[in-house]
Amino acid sequence: PARKNKLDEAAIKAIIIDSRSFGDFRRAGMQSFLRIATPGYHGPTARTVQRSLKKLYDEKKKALIEQLANIPCVSITADTWCSSRKHHYLCVTVHFISQNYEQHGTVLSFRRFHGRSFAIRLRRHIHTVLGMFGLEKGKVHGTTTDNGSDMRKATQNMK
């Protein structure tokens, strides 16, 4: 079991690094390779990968919240775009300088929006994301957007 856990961990790390699908290690070609390379090992299931990624995400999120709690001020960027299929997307990024004077930029949220009332839902989502990471109004000292009219409406009352 210890060796299987170690191999599963390495496989999940490979999936993350190479942006592979969750079930890659259960495909026929990979199974053929694994039978020769590590007899008896079958690779993690997609469900195992999914659970591990959720756990890693929660750990990273908690660490970022703790890091941001010690930062007096941050800037955020909010970028929106629309795909050729008329799907709207929003990416919220936080930028800050650490206590060691190192610049950091991290994605807080990446989301796809459907339907109407786009500006209202953008504003609500941005406020939810900032609250989730402990970035109350007084902590956000700068906001940069892509100058879309919907984004201006969504971020106008954030400072």
TrEMBL record:
GO terms for molecular function: zinc ion binding. The lineage of its organism: Eukaryota, Metazoa, Spiralia, Gnathifera, Rotifera. InterPro entries: RNaseH-like_sf, ZnF_BED_domain_contain. Keywords: Metal-binding, Nucleus, Zinc, Zinc-finger. This is Transposase. It comes from Adineta ricciae. It comes from the Eukaryota. The keyword Nucleus applies. One of its GO terms (cellular component) is nucleus. It is found in: Nucleus.
